[in-house]
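From: lab user (bench 3)
To: helpdesk
Subject: output format question, protein + protoporphyrin IX containing FE

Hello, I'm new to running complex predictions and I'm not sure whether the block I got back is the full result or only part of it. Here's what I submitted:
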Amino acid sequence: MAESDVQVAVTPYDLVGRADVVRRIVDRFYDLMDEEGFAELRALHAPDLAPMRDSLTGFLIAWLGGPRDWFTRNPGKCVMSLHSKIAVTQQTARQWCDAMRLAIAEFVPDQDFGAKMADALEGMARGMVRG
Ligand code: HEM
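Helpdesk reply: Thanks, we reran it on our side. This is the complete output you should expect:
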């Protein structure tokens, strides 16, 4: 078999740049929350964002097809149900999506892929809006 026939599975996790890049995206995302334009979103969160930085990083790594540690650590935890207890409005969902899109654009090397990733997350975020 010629070397070119070998199929190498490339996951979205690889395209993003793996764990280091996911962590950078999440850190930027939560840093943006302290900037102008995201006050309502920030107000929904606890003062200490450190546990959320770890949790969202772990979730996104698994969601992108990387190591599934977040799901192993949180058996039965569903990210959609988790948000049913949070009063997510159109406004806070918009802020979440805008901050995430900016953070992704800053760190994901393939801009087309980054835009698709932001679109997919926006779909999830829309499903979390209540009322
Ligand atoms: C629709 C807009 C969204 C809003 C307003 C929102 C808001 C929140 C809030 C307030 C928390 C709890 C923070 C705290 O206790 O300090 C949280 C946790 C979390 N959110 Fe969201 N969120 C949104 C969308 C998303 C989306 C689309 C995802 C998935 C990609 C996500 C993933 C998570 C994760 C993994 C946690 C941590 C859960 C835990 O470890 O307990 N969120 N979110």
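A quick orientation on your result: The chain has a mean pLDDT of 95. Let us know if anything else is unclear.
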